[in-house]
């Protein structure tokens, strides 16, 4: 029997029951109207008020039950594993694991006999990423190896002049710092802006820009503190002053909605192995169409030409689309994996995911606040927070606390001498409770 690689996850009868509890709308899930509301509606004001309360009650119950069902079905983590490390490397959903297994079996059985079907999955992935970013076109989407490669395409593709400057924050992950520091050979200044102490982080970044600022580069969410930037405010400032705006979105894409048009972003990049629930080795790179020609290419190959399937052609031109940044063969295993992961995110809906991620981080903060000496590193306000909760405990060895949790099955991270917990939308309260209880026991014993 010939295996078939599907571009979408095949649903079982049980899955169809789950899907039946929600109604698909663009970009999000929306609960069905409950039968209780229909039965309870009346012409009286009291009846209408009861109906609304009943509808909200059943909507909340239905969504919570649906998310629990989804978590149980898609994330069969081993007993004793409390996964709170999506800001590093996320576990794959079941459908992603199965998609990779199907692809491997097909390849072993028949090689590239159905390569056209593989290309169809790749095209679907570009469309999915366009939807996640609200990019104008799938032609704005390039598939690169990782975030660092995409940042390098920008940094070493632009035509720099001595005296130009780049504005970044003092909280950036090395990928979004080193690449700009490498421009020192062109006498380009890198201004690292302290985000704490200013009226707002955005104001501090804006004040650092001047007439020689060529580009502002910022992480949508900072990897260590979890600080979320107001991208629309920064983007508007940059666009009004002809400053290029580059966003490292690896710590938000898949957890918080991203709109490259509303944020006036010129370049956006994000690897797939964190909040997108995909594999390492595949990243999305968005480049605004008007700027493609402004990035000088430094890698060339068969895949980045306009007629990439015409192997006998002696003349060539660079692809008009963002495929110009992809010099060689695509990573088809990762393409199938990320495609499967994104079907889960898009079916669930980014608004639903974002709401649940913020509920989970708030739940962690509320629980950690009960621990004596706990100092929260991450912001408390929803609009400045995403999926990261980082904290320290006064007079406590944070590295020792990290080892204590790790040995007991809590998958988390140690960043900037703070313990970082990063739940996704499907993370259960039992998982978060287990981690907090272990923190409490360590603090009590110290």
Layout: helices, strands, pairs:
Blueprint: H1 13-19, E1 22-25, E2 28-31, H2 35-40, H3 45-74, E3 82-83, H4 94-110, H5 115-133, E4 141-144, H6 147-155, E5 165-169, H7 175-181, E6 189-193, H8 201-208, E7 213-219, H9 231-240, E8 244-248, E9 267-271, E10 283-287, H10 332-348, H11 350-368, E11 374-376, E12 389-393, H12 398-407, E13 410-411, E14 413-415, E15 418-421, H13 429-445
Parallel strand pairs: 3-13, 5-6, 5-7, 7-8, 8-9
Antiparallel strand pairs: 1-2, 4-10, 9-10, 11-12, 12-15, 14-15
Structure notes:
The structure is a single chain. The protein is α/β, with parallel strands linked by helices and 446 residues long. The protein has 2 domains: 98-347, Type I PLP-dependent aspartate aminotransferase-like (Major domain) (Aspartate Aminotransferase, domain 2, 3-Layer(aba) Sandwich), CATH 3.40.640.10; 350-445, Aspartate Aminotransferase, domain 1, CATH 3.90.1150.10. 39% of the residues lie in helices and 14% in strands. It contains 13 helices and 15 strands. It has helices at 13-19, 35-40, 45-74, 94-110, 115-133, 147-155, 175-181, 201-208, 231-240, 332-348, 350-368, 398-407, 429-445; strands at residues 22-25, 28-31, 82-83, 141-144, 165-169, 189-193, 213-219, 244-248, 267-271, 283-287, 374-376, 389-393, 410-411, 413-415, 418-421. Strands 4-10-9-8-7-5-6 form a 7-stranded mixed β-sheet, with helices on both faces. Helix 5 (115-133) packs across helix 10 (332-348) and helix 6 (147-155) runs parallel beside helix 7 (175-181). The longest helix is centred in the N-terminal third of the chain and has 30 residues, at 45-74. The protein is globular and about 70 Å long. The model is unreliable at 1-58 (pLDDT under 50).
């Amino acid at each position: 029997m010939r295996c078939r690689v599907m571009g979408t996850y095949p649903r079982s009868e049980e899955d169809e029951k789950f899907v039946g509890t929600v109604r698909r709308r663009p970009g999000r899930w929306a609960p069905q109207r409950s039968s209780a509301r229909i039965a309870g509606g009346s012409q009286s004001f009291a009846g209408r008020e009861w109906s609304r309360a009943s509808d909200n009650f059943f909507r909340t119950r239905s969504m919570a039950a649906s998310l629990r069902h989804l978590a149980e079905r898609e994330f069969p983590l081993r007993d004793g594993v409390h996964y709170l490390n999506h800001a590093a490397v996320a576990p794959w959903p079941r459908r992603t694991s199965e998609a990779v297994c199907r692809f491997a079996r097909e390849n072993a059985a028949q090689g590239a006999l159905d390569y056209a079907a593989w290309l169809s999955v790749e095209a679907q992935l570009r469309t999915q990423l366009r939807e996640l970013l609200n990019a104008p076109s799938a032609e704005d989407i390039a598939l690169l190896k990782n975030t660092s490669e995409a940042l390098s395409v920008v940094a070493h593709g632009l035509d720099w002049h001595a005296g130009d400057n780049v504005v970044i924050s003092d909280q950036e992950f090395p990928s979004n710092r080193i690449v700009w520091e490498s421009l020192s050979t062109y006498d380009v200044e890198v201004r690292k802006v302290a985000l704490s102490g200013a009226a707002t982080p955005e104001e501090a970044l804006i004040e650092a820009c001047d007439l020689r600022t060529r580009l502002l580069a910022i992480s949508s969410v900072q990897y260590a503190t979890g600080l979320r930037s107001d991208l629309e405010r920064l983007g508007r400032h940059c666009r009004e002053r002809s400053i290029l705006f580059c966003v490292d979105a690896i710590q938000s894409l898949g957890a918080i909605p991203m709109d490259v048009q509303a944020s006036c972003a010129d370049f956006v990049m994000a690897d797939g192995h964190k909040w997108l629930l995909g594999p390492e080795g595949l990243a999305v790179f968005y480049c605004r169409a008007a700027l493609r020609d402004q990035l000088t290419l430094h890698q060339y190959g068969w895949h980045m030409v306009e007629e990439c399937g015409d192997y006998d052609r002696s003349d060539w031109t660079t692809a008009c689309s963002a495929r110009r940044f992809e010099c060689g063969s695509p990573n088809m295993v990762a393409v199938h994996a990320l495609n499967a992961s994104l079907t889960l995110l898009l079916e669930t809906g980014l608004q639903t995911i974002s709401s649940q991620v913020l509920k989970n981080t708030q739940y962690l903060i509320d629980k950690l606040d009960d621990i004596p000496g706990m100092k929260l590193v991450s912001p408390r306000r929803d609009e400045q927070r995403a999926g990261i909760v980082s904290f320290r405990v006064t007079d406590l060895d944070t590295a020792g606390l990290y080892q204590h949790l790790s040995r007991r099955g809590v998958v988390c991270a140690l960043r900037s001498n703070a313990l970082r917990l990063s739940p996704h939308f499907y993370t259960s309260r039992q998982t978060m409770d287990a981690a907090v209880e272990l923190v409490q026991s360590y603090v009590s014993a110290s």
